[in-house]
Q: What sequence folds into this?
């Protein structure tokens, strides 16, 4: 092989190496700071999100703090390997109360259209979907969450407690698997 061919081969390998390193760095940046895939585990968000569905989480809101009541959020558990998917109900400073299956935030009733299917099923068997509780004052820097499948959900009412901004990994962006059921879950 001539020096020229060896030089071209080295140059080509170096260019490919640079491209691969840049691609890996971009993938890591996107996954750590912008979007990350998560797997739904359990029934606490049925039927909005179903066990084993995969979704993309928008992690940018973690840095901006632009959480809205009603957002579906991904939370870190006490062990960093544990994650929860829940609906954000109470913001810092809110007073949360449930009376006769109606949610009240700061004394005002809040409509929860995402619960219609579960409420219909609960009414068919003669029970409330969500038991009465509160009023609960959400402390500064804390967030109150609940699952949409209220009778099957461990959440801020019954064991998980309140969460901080640091516990929130991001908001649900869209379900990407199974492919036949791609959608934005709200």
A:
């Amino acid at each position: 092989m001539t020096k020229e061919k060896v030089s071209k081969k080295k140059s080509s390998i170096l260019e490919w190496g640079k491209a691969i390193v840049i691609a890996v760095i971009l993938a890591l940046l996107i996954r750590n700071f912008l979007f990350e895939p998560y797997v739904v585990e359990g029934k606490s968000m049925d039927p909005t999100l179903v066990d084993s569905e995969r979704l993309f989480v928008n992690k940018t809101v973690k840095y901006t703090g632009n959480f809205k009541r009603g957002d579906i959020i991904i939370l870190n558990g006490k062990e960093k390997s544990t994650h929860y998917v829940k609906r954000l109900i109470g913001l810092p400073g809110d007073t949360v109360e449930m009376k006769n299956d109606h949610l009240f935030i700061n004394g005002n009733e809040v409509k929860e259209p995402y619960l219609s299917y579960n409420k219909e099923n609960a009414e068919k068997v003669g029970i409330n979907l969500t038991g009465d509780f509160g009023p609960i004052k959400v402390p500064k820097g804390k967030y109150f969450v609940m699952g949409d499948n209220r009778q099957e959900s461990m959440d801020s009412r019954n064991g998980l407690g309140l969460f901080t901004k640091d516990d929130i990994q991001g908001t649900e962006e869209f379900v990407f698997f199974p492919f036949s059921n791609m959608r934005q879950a709200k």
User: Anything to note?
Assistant: The first strand starts at residue 35 and ends at 39. Residues 34-175 form a domain with the Umud Fragment, subunit A fold (CATH 2.10.109.10). The mean pLDDT is 88.
